[in-house]
Amino acid sequence: MSGIRIDRWLWAARFFKTRSLAKTAVEGGKVHVDGQRTKPAKELRLGQTLTIRKGLQEQTVVVEALSEQRGAATIAQTLYKETPESIELREISVSRRRMERAGLTVPSGRPNKKDRRALSQLKSLDEGWDNDEGA
User: Is the dihedral of CA 74, 79, 84, 90 positive or negative?
Assistant: First the structure.
């Protein structure tokens, strides 16, 4: 087997539930092969690097095996290897989204006068809370 259609491989590797979803993603520019946009019928070969974007999540994987058949998830995971940089960026974005959902945001710069006053007021409330517990 010299190559396989990229949409079939994405489906077999379980990045997309159906082959038509994989085809639509490739046509929409959500999948890049070696940094270039591609077409669904493009032949995929071993060692090529894929960048796959699904929603806010982006993965960079290296093709390690080719398969036209969709199998179990454990078999599908052997078809590719995610790069360490991709894993790190994905974990950072997940933790950032989790913090934002909790109402926390990373400040863009130094706090202004209003922010400093709010922080000191919050700290004073926290100190008062500690004193009440001992009573």
Answer: negative
- Residue 111 tokens read as 């706090």
Give 49's strand partners. Answer: 62
pTM over 0.90, yes/no: no
Number of domains in the chain: 1
Domain annotation covers residue 85: yes
pLDDT tens track for 36-79: 999 999 999 999 999 999 988 899 999 999 998 998 999 999 99
**Overall size of the chain counted in residues:** 135
Radius of gyration of the chain (CA): 23
Residue type, position 90, single letter: R
Asked, for residue 106, whether it belongs to a domain, the answer is no
Cβ(5)–Cβ(42) below 8 Å: yes
Tokens of 104: 């926390």
The residues, ordered by sequence, that sit 6+ positions from 41 with a Cβ below 8 Å of its Cβ are: 5, 6, 7
Nearest CA to 56 among 10, 20, 14, 90? Answer: 90
Assigned domain for 80 exists: yes
